[in-house]
Amino acid sequence: MAVTIKDVAKKAGVNASTVSRVIKDSSQISDRTKTIVRKAMAELGYTRNAAAQILASGKTNTIGVVFPPVDNKSSQPFFMKILTAINETARESNVSIAIATGHTQKELKKQVQLMYSERRVDGFIVLYAGKTDSVREYLFGNNIPYVLVGTPSEHQNEITHVDNDNKLLGHEAVRHLAQLGHKNIAFVTDTKEGEVFAERFQGFNEEMMSRGLTSSLLKFGQNFSIGKATALIVIDDVLSLRVLERLKAQNLSVPDDISLITFNNSIFGTIMHPFLTTFDINVTRLGAASVGKFLDLLNSTSHYHEKTVIPFELILRESTKAK
Amino acid sequence: MAVTIKDVAKKAGVNASTVSRVIKDSSQISDRTKTIVRKAMAELGYTRNAAAQILASGKTNTIGVVFPPVDNKSSQPFFMKILTAINETARESNVSIAIATGHTQKELKKQVQLMYSERRVDGFIVLYAGKTDSVREYLFGNNIPYVLVGTPSEHQNEITHVDNDNKLLGHEAVRHLAQLGHKNIAFVTDTKEGEVFAERFQGFNEEMMSRGLTSSLLKFGQNFSIGKATALIVIDDVLSLRVLERLKAQNLSVPDDISLITFNNSIFGTIMHPFLTTFDINVTRLGAASVGKFLDLLNSTSHYHEKTVIPFELILRESTKAK
DNA sequence: CTGAAAGCGCTTACAG
DNA sequence: CTGAAAGCGCTTACAG
Q: A139-148, B22-31, B40-49, B53-62: lowest mean pLDDT where?
């Protein structure tokens, strides 16, 4: 029914193997033959059968994308954005994407295992980092090719990963505020878990110290108070929205009374005024790089695991102001 | 290298075709044989090769999920949520998911065409409705099985689709407000495009009329003013956040001065106070039903296209109050 | 209830 | 530069 390589071969007056070679643009085929075969393909409307190609070649040319096993997490715009970027970059290299989602770590692991053992994917891109979970243990333990988006807590030297420089991000946040004349700067977070917090906070600390300023850490919760801070560095823009609300309730105006800078540049930063001054972490490039690195991993004989650092960019908006 | 059906057959002392039948739990195989074969599979750690199975059977058992061709749209939590639901439901029926994303309609169409012609998918679930675009024209014109999430503007009777009853949603919003004693109720939107607006607004109108109330439509923009309204029905919760901010700027308090009810129950409804009273549209069931309907479509010989209506639920929170 | 055989549509050494 | 052949790992009529 559907047109196959044989139909093309017959029409072009060549062997099927020649058609196959033309498809992959093999250098051993003469230009004359290529032209003839391509014409035949076009006339018949040939498209290759993916399953046949995968079975015969032994390569799936598809990457499994693993989402974090927590519902609320994946509702963040970040995930949809990076999925789009990954999909687009992959397509440019003619590779497909399969996705793995699950409510629990166990479900997720089952799915990842199945995908790999059914030979649906060549490996994975994992969209969460931090502490090793059973999914990543499985990948790591079985030497399955994968790259992490984010920074792992352990084995950093043995895992290919792609991330921003979160420590530098902490430094830069302080720098921006200090340039505006702020000295009493506090770091605000709702969680002390994870590498992202650890690194951004460390960078903050280092920069404060190097400027002879005393740093303070504010945990956002019930009785949140900014003390004598004149500027806040908030761990991400969703929390910033809550902080903003609390400040308003305390009759503190941003940026007039207090400056606020944050990270990620998600859609949450421009929903309400003041629009947030924030660091864009370049999700599109994170996604593109993760695909690139994965493909490198697959093709390289050497098992060299490196970290790729994606640059960020300060987006100046309305929430910071000179003191 | 990997263990195949042949290895299992040898170990179990049967023919490969028998193993194949055991895998699909064919009723023609004796229980005794099934037990023996399953034991052999377990001992060898057999998993079937997806590509071989697809090639031999001619069925891909995978569904292509098509995202809307607009960036900002897909950043809404809705899409990640429904993708997760679709993936989970599909997995329960042993079907896989492939995704199609693109910045433009043209890109998207190219991708959809390729997926289908390479025989990677049996058909599609399209995550946007409204007016027909070139992607859906292609699907419709070529008789490719697909289901729509949402309500199409045309051919409603010839397209299988899954949606909430948006008109009823409009009715119910008025009902809730009327029960609280409100009479001056306005509908607020930032766009008049699309079936969602059309239907919710129509339901609003009908219900207002049947109660002898005069309905009014407010377009949200520069000089937004609520007039003499005491209650607002806002098209979705993202816009609600902006409306809330504008009201605050006008020294109007929600819900004390004015009530606000909205739709979708996304994460945006509980970021800031007042938490929004909203209708949950049950995204998880939308996703699950779209998979179910798609599978029905594939297996049915009759080409009967129906609409599936997913129930919604009122989530009472802080933004509405008795007058 | 089970086996033997052909076939799905490609790829890839091997020859020439 | 091209062809003939074997093989990838399944499924599925066909027989018995």
A: B22-31
Counted domains in chain A:
3
Cβ within 8 Å, pair B80-A81: no
CA distances from A89 to A59, A123, A149, B74, B111 (A): 18, 16, 15, 17, 13
Q: Are residues A72 and A136 in the same domain?
A: yes
Distance of B98 CA from D12 C1′ (whole Å)? 27
Nearest by CB to residue B49, choosing from A48, A118, A272, is A118
DSSP-derived pairing of the beta strands A185-189 and B96-100: unpaired
Q: How far, in Å, CA of A150 to CA of A296, rounded?
A: 18
Rounded distance between C-alpha atoms, residue A128 and residue A149, angstroms: 6
Six token digits for residue B257:
């001065």
- Amino acid letter, A231: A
Nearest CA in chain A to B239: A271
Domain range for A22 = 5-48
A239 and A178 share one domain: yes
Q: How sure is the predictor about B76, in pLDDT bands with cuts at 50, 70 and 90? A: confident
If asked whether residues A86 and A187 sit together in one domain, one would say: no
* CB-contacts to strand C (7 A): A 1-2, 4-6, 16-17, 20-21, 23-24, 46, 48-49, 52-53, 55-59; B 13-18, 21, 27-30, 32-33, 52, 55-56, 58
Residue A30 within any structural domain of the chain: yes
pLDDT number for residue A50: 95
Q: Are residues B178 and B269 in the same domain?
A: yes
Q: Look at residue B312 in the predicted model and tell me its pLDDT.
A: 97
Same domain, B233 and B174: yes
B positions 48-87 inside 8 Å of A (CB): 48-52, 54-55, 60, 67, 71-72, 74-77, 79-81, 83-84, 87
In this structure, the answer to whether residues B182 and B139 fall within a common structural domain is: no
Reported confidence tier of residue A72, pLDDT bands at 50, 70, 90: low
Confidence label for B113 from pLDDT (cuts 50, 70 and 90): very high
pLDDT at position B301, please? 59
In terms of domains, do A182 and A260 share one? yes
Q: Is the pLDDT of residue B71 over 80?
A: no
In terms of Cα–Cα distance, which of A163, A165, A162, A158 is closest to A305?
Answer: A158
B68: closest chain A residue by CA: A84
Q: Measure, in angstroms, how far nucleotide D7 C1' is from residue B84 CA.
A: 38
- Residue B131 has a pLDDT of 85
Mean pLDDT across B230-246? 93
Of B47, B87, B119, the CB nearest to A49: B119
Give the whole-number percent of chain A exceeding pLDDT 90.
Answer: 78
- A170 and A277 co-located in one domain: yes
In three-state secondary structure terms, A123 is: strand
Contact yes or no for A235/A188 (Cβ under 8 A): yes
Mean pLDDT of chain B: 92
pLDDT class of A76 with cuts at 50, 70, 90: confident
Kindly state the percentage of chain A with pLDDT values over 70.
97
B123: its two tokens: 């058909």
* Domain contains B189: yes
- Identify whether A322 is part of a domain: no
Give the CA A295 to C1' C10 distance in Å. Answer: 23
Within a domain: residue B87?
A: yes
Interaxial angle between packed helices B134-141 and B105-117, expressed in degrees from 0 to 180 and rounded to the nearest 10:
30
